[in-house]
Amino acid sequence: MSEQTSEQPMDKGRPINPLLKSVLEYGPVVLFFIAYLRLKDQAFEIGGTSYEGFIVVTAGFVPLMVLSTLALWKLTGKLSKMQVMTLVLIVVFGGLSVWFNDERFFKMKPTMIYLLFGGLLGFGLLRGQSYLRVVMEEMMPLQDEGWMILTRRLCAMFFALAVANEVIWRMMSTESWVYFKTFGLTAAMFLFFMTQARLFQTYGLEEDKDAS
């Protein structure tokens, strides 16, 4: 990826301001939500085709997400596999929605993301491995058994979120789905990790404080 100094391994990347990192990661989603609320009841005539506000907002969200992810990569020198896969699915499904003027493709995107992540974790579990550990070990060191338990729980969580997204976008209004995507999915993941506090306490590893 980007050039790294000898003191800073590539896999750790370069540190950046936490606020800037949050803006780059969550800013496009917030802007998507705000733009949708402003344009949801409008229609736009472009090239002889009428596009609803949702499609127009999606068309702006995709390149904005690409630019913010590239900026994050430029500043930190790394991207996680999850970030890369998420961006690819955003470009593919967002692009399909705009190309075919059909909002259903973009609404299916969270389903595909969670099925992909859940499937990858499940595949690792079948091999007796925790792929989650590869991604998150630096953030929260755990014993081997702890990683396996957390991976099984998160795998189930991803599949549950995929089902929830399908139910909501198919049975509820677009506005309800936008609220769910913006707040519901984020809250669900936050609550999931909050409820794992006992696991982190039980299987957490003390950092080596004797290293000098």
From TrEMBL:
Domain of life: Bacteria
Segments crossing the lipid bilayer: 20-39, 51-72, 84-100, 112-132, 153-172, 178-195
Signal peptide boundaries: none
Compartment list: Cell inner membrane
Membrane-related topology note: Multi-pass membrane protein
HAMAP family in alphabetical order: YciB (MF_00189)
Family: Belongs to the YciB family.
Protein name listed in UniProt: Inner membrane-spanning protein YciB
Organism: Tritonibacter scottomollicae
